[in-house]
Specification:
five-stranded mixed sheet; Rossmann fold; Spo0b-associated Gtp-binding Protein, Chain: A; six-stranded mixed sheet; 20% strand; alpha/beta
Length: 376
Amino acid sequence: MSQSFVDSVRVYVKGGDGGNGAISFRREKYVPHGGPDGGDGGPGGNVWFVASTELATLIDLKLRPSLKAGAGGHGLGKNMTGRAGDDITVEVPLGTVVLDEDGNELADLVEAGQRFLAAAGGAGGAGNQHYATPTNQAPRKAKRGQPGQERSLQLELKLIAQGGLIGLPNAGKSTLLASLTSATPRIAPFPFTTLHPNLGVMEVDVARRVTLADIPGLIEGAWRGAGLGDRFLRHIERTALLIHLVAPPEDCQLLPDLRPEDEAEMAELGRDGVRAAYQLVRRELEAYSEELSRKPEIIVLTKIDLLPERLRQAWLAVLRETGKPVAAISAETGEGLDRLKALLIEQLDRMGMIWDDPRRPHLAAAPPVEPDRSGD
């Protein structure tokens, strides 16, 4: 994956230790037997994660995997409380999931400004002023500050987009994303050009936008991690609609002079290839997640500028057998793009998935999350 795109990172977080309480006695002129006036220790600082629309990767945390908040100051005489330790607030991209060491989900940061308390600071210790009793008016006892919470956390990024482009390598996903949106992914005529997910924003009208995600091509065994497929698949878990691109078999492309007597044989060969390409990706989706496999889907036959018309129609008929919406496009010539865009808008509009703000996620907002301290 690109060094600048990081979608998974392990971090160590530690809240600041609380300051110790002070042992001190009042010493003033004409008050020879002043009582205890030791102040409390200050609380340790907290470590917070905050979701931000300004970030698209976890690379900052990869470069800074250890986060320690400031310790609280010790208590002082004259009942003076120690200063509170400094908090650490770390911005993370929208869609960041926080997991504990056992893989349990602690937070899903999907709204801008949503906060998660990753490590709480320790409480400050009580000064000796709190330990005075009728029988011990000069206690020489104070409490030490509590240590801050510390743990290792796994952060995983799941992109937030309304539509996700899927398909085998070299199916034309990056070219389509560039054609429909303002994104500028790397494009080349060979497989595995896309090494990390890309996002693009498609204009619907003056006020409305649609965000599309292009994930790297899937290969057989992707759900088990082949080709880093399991990491890529999670980026379309949040999408409302799958846009499944199917390219013609390579040996059936660029055949404008195909002889009529060979056309039937080539059409049958292509049917098998198109069907196999589509079913392979479907199997990977189903193996990875039943929920992901049930998402609404538009099937798109790509690179139709490389196909004779009769072959194009034969293979579209194969894809229509699924009962799902089907489109045919050439991202190179622009043929079919307007119809595909209209189909995308129609499907997403019907699902209530088109908003005025392209960065607004389609997930319910969650409140700030704080860790369970019952086991501390």
